[in-house]
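<instruction>
Derive structure tokens from the sequence
<entry> Chain with its tokenised backbone below:
===
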Amino acid sequence: MARLVKLLSGLVLFGISIALMVAADLGVPAWDVLHQGLSRWTGLSFGWVVNLVGALVLLAWIPLRVRPGIGTLCNILLVGMVADTALRVLPHIDGTTPRLGVLLAAIALNALATGLYIGADLGPGPRDGLMTGLAARGVSLRTARTAIEVAVLAAGWLLGGTVGIGTLVYSAVIGPLAQPAIRHFTRAAPALPQAAPPPPTVRPCHERASMMRLHIISCSTRTTSAGRPLARWIAELAAAQHAFEPTLIDLGEVALPFLDEPGLPSDGHYVHQQTKDWSALIDGADAFVFVMPMYNGGFTAPLKNAIDTLYREWQDKPVGLISYSTGSSGGAPAVEMIRPVLARVGLRPAAHTLSIPAIEDHLDEAGRLRATAGLADQVQAVLAGIARPAAVPPEREPAGA
């Protein structure tokens, strides 16, 4: 309920902030330039255009395979309605100084509203989801955002929307203003111990026999990697369920050398002790979660090497994919890049994947994970999906030399 209140409060304030910027008449954000232009061209109210454009943009999510949340739908229904109501009651503003004051106040209110509705973690707005959806398909987020906003700005201006100093000021300051608001209003999940995964729970033999041995692999070898606290927290969530017996594996600690076996991995005849140890570790798992960063649009070399070193040990086992990045894509391109590799060795990706953008926002000053309730729900969805993995393509080739 608290998250819903936060969401609705943010969307109401967002609609009011847009109305204030329109009333200041010094220029509005790019999308609202389009909304203004369409309103003047069609005769529909500004708010109705906001809602209709949001609904049309939502249709573009379908080929991008982006799923709306309740926050997405509330955004479409509420923001335009609130903006229309506010525009009906706001007085006409005379004088450049008062209009500039209203503009700056509106931008600050917009940043606060953004923090509230994004902090509720109930789904992105339709326009933001379009850009992150394109990023997840491999398009640079900066390229996607720039291209879309330039296009809607140009179209809106041609239709009669207001472009001015407010348009430039909003573009320059909304990011720095909204970021601390998002951090402040992000709802934390219930606190979990961070030092190490919890000790194994002693359960009856018949329970242990039915539990899935889940290996959670942190796929970065960097000592400061955000994947380490993230993987520990995922192990804690898995341990709290009766379905999993989690084991945490850090590729940095495993320190597997680059593949140097004389025989093919598909033969399974290993000479080096490190390879034999890695084989035993992976062979003992029923399923995996890969906690993987994105480096330059792809997954990490240590993970590729760890997969390539073995073959039979991976086969016909489900794997959950959880990626992260410092940018807005959340590492989704790395997830798409690894899928053909998984198919080659017979790993079965879970239907639900998770990509976490701006991972540093989930860490405190000491580098510990500061997870949100929404993030916990999404990890639980990945864990649930491991029991329902996607089908593997029927033809696979053994790993090469």
Notes: The chain is about 55% helix and 10% strand.
